[in-house]
Structure formats: C-alpha cells, structure tokens
Predict the 3D structure of the following.
Amino acid sequence: MGETSLLVFSICMQAAIGIMLFSFVAQMVFKDKQFKMAAITAAILGVVGVFASFAHLGHPLSALNVLGRFGQSWLSTEAVLAGVFAGVAVLYAALHFFRPDDRMLSLGLSGIGSVLGLVAVLSMAKVYTTTSVPVWQGANTFIDFYTTTIAIGALGFLATSIGQLQDVSKKLFGYSILAAVVIQAASTVPHILGLSGMGAAAQSSIQILNGMNTLVWAKWLLILGGAGIALYPASAKVQEGAKLNINAFITAGAALVIGQVIGRYLFYAALVVTNVGLM
Amino acid sequence: MTRLGFYFDMTSCVGCRTCEIACKDKNNLQVGIVFRQVSTFETGSFPNPGVFHYSGACNHCANPKCVEGCPTGAMHISDDGTIQHDSDKCIGCRYCVWNCPYGAPKFIPETGKVAKCDSCKDLRDKGENPACVDACMMRALEWGDIDELKRKHAGEELTNDLPILETSTISEPALIINIKPVARQKDYREKVV
C-alpha cells in the first residue's frame, strides 16, 4: 500500500487536534491546572503529521505551491490549515516553558488551535469525499475523522495528563471516548449498505474489505474494547488518596490507537477509483 | 468558446489498440503508463452475446474534477479549452488521479509528477491531428470542435454516457461516442486481453 505517509499524517494530525481540543476544555473546567505533557504531545504529533504529508509528495520541496489555491482546492486548504495548526501547537507547547503562568494566552492559543484543528478535520474529510472514490464518499468519512479526533484526543489527553487529573472527575473524557466510538461503529452499517447499491468501483472496494475480514473485526474489537477499558477508570468515583489504575489507561490507549490505525489502513486499502479505460 | 474534444466511433473500432501504442510512442511512456487505453467488454450470453471496445483518454471536461481539486493550479484549463498540466507547478500529490472519473492523470514515479493526455497540443499547434487520431486505421477517432463533430455525425447514435462510464453530468466531458447498441447493456464484463 502506497498511502502509509497519509495514514501517519491523518492519524497524527487528528490525535494532535483532539488533544488540543481536550486541553482547552480541561483548562476551562479545571481552572487551576496546567497540562504541559499534553501540549508537548500535541506539538510533536502535529509536526510529525506535517512531515509525513511531505513524504507523500513526489516533489516535497515544491510543497509551498499549495498556498496559491487556499480556499479553492480542498487539498490546498487542508495543507495550509494543518500547517498553521502545527505552528499553533508548537507555540502552545513553548508557552508552557517560557510563560507557564499566562493563563489567558494559554486559553487563547489552545482555543484558536482547537477551532483551526476542527476546521482542518473538516477539510481533511472534504479532500476524500470529493474524489471519484465511492468508498470515501458520503457522511461516513466526516464521522470517521471527527470521532477518531475525539476518541484518540480524549484518551491521549488522559494518558498525558493523568498526574494532574488524579483528584478530579474524568467522566467527561470517558463518556466522550465511548460516545465517539459508538457513533463511529454505528455509521459504518449504513455506509456499507449504501456502497452495495453503487457501481463497479464500490463493489471492488467491498471485495477488498471482505478479503480483509480479520482486520475489520480486529479494528472494531480493539476500538470498542479500548473505549470500554478506558471508561472503567475514567468513570470511577474520585476518592482522596486512592491510586488511579494507570495500567488500564495504557492498555485502553494502546488498543484504541492500534484499532484506529487499522481502521485508517483499511480506509486507504479500499481505494478504488471510478474509472474505465485508463487503469 | 469553442469546445475541443474527441469523437469515438465505437461501431467501427476493432480493438486493435493502435491508438494506444501511437500515444505511448508519441509521449515516450514507460511500461505500465498509458494516456489512452482501449478496453474490451462482453455483454449478454449465448445465443445473444455482444462485444464492444472503448478507447479512453482525457476527455478535456468542461467541469474538470482534476482542475477543481489540484492544490497548486498545475492542472488547468488552457486558452483553447483543453485541460493542460503545468509540470513546473506539480508537486506530485496525486490528488488529480483520485479525482478524475476517467482515470486520465497518471503518476510517473521516475519524475515524481503527474502527466496526462494533452491532446497532442504541439502537433495541433502545427495544424496536425493528435497522434491517436492519425494512427487509427479504422478512422474511429476524430478530434475537433465538439459542435462541428456533432453536426458532421448527425444521424449516428451519439452519446457521452455509457453504463461503463461515470455519468457525464459530473464533469461534462468533451467526448462524443457513436455507440454500439450492446454498449447500452448493463451486464457488461471487462475482458482483460
């Protein structure tokens, strides 16, 4: 499969955007706390994502050519927004080293980063839904991208900020993860049913996915299982002095991330363009 | 503005693939890369079997998805209305390859960029025909103003919609086909030669 760099780009970028979003939410809810590790993780993932997107290009040194069609081409818009988001994520991380007490700036940067990131996810989904690849068309791609952002983002934020969250309720994050993966799983059913009534390219995509049945099952087991495991410690009652089950978060995080990576692999593996004559 | 495009006479095409080879030769394309390709399809079954060939290339659409999606403007509509590709602007993202419903743009690994049928613009600028048109021994291909070609072939069963192709409303291809009746059947099977 030749789309590995896009897999890395989309997963890293969506994880970074999700972590930024939950950092912003957590700062609003827990006003006296800082989330340095989450900010650093979002910055690293954002930068890795941008470099991965360069690796997909035949001519990465000419990548700045995409600036010219911002707002006209979804791919150009996505590239610019992802780049700007990564820049904001790096600034947000740097803030924790150089001006750690500036709460307003911290809120401002994470807020701007979250909005930019959510629009970037929209443009990422549009990049795929507007192609001639039937398996990518429709609402499922939007739902998949946003739910991945929420699920990995919330779990990534929990995993990197567990030290600061020992004594507060984590239900918001646990239920966000669960809701995201349930919606993600539920949207797959109408998507596959819709594909079965489409043309030859859609049928070829279904055949590819049927041939990867084991991976499809592994994906859902890991995603739903990971969300279930995360929910247990995240929804537990907060008791003073009680130790958090960090192993459960690590297991849940690993399962969820591996499941989402398999899901994204299947997304690209099912690529069949609608065309005849020129294969 | 005049719209330039191809006329393809499916009723006289014998599937010899001379157009494909002439294009490959003209553009010096490596193994595995074609800008024009002939596909053969079978329909029906005994005692009513059918066969038809389709010679496909860039259809120089009025609403080109490749141009719409291109993030750099490398894929563009030129002054004569045909779809041209500016290699200097191309970054090799392959997005046009995913966008074109006819599979016209091809990624060339050696150059790291995309290339496609330019309707032999260099030959046309000298007043000649595209290489595929002149190579066809059955005279099944023609190039010119689509409206003039329609007038010239009035009385034939002309269309640019086939069950094997995406609907023409997506990108409005500058293509007219004199269709064989069996090509309207939906039970087509591609015969890989």
About this structure: The mean pLDDT of chain B is 95. The first strand of chain B starts at residue 4 and ends at 9. Residues 18-26 of chain B form the longest helix (9 residues). Chain B touches chain A at residues 34-39, 54-57, 65, 68-74, 89-95, 97-104, 106-107, 109, 111-114, 164-166, 170, 190 (CB under 8 Å).
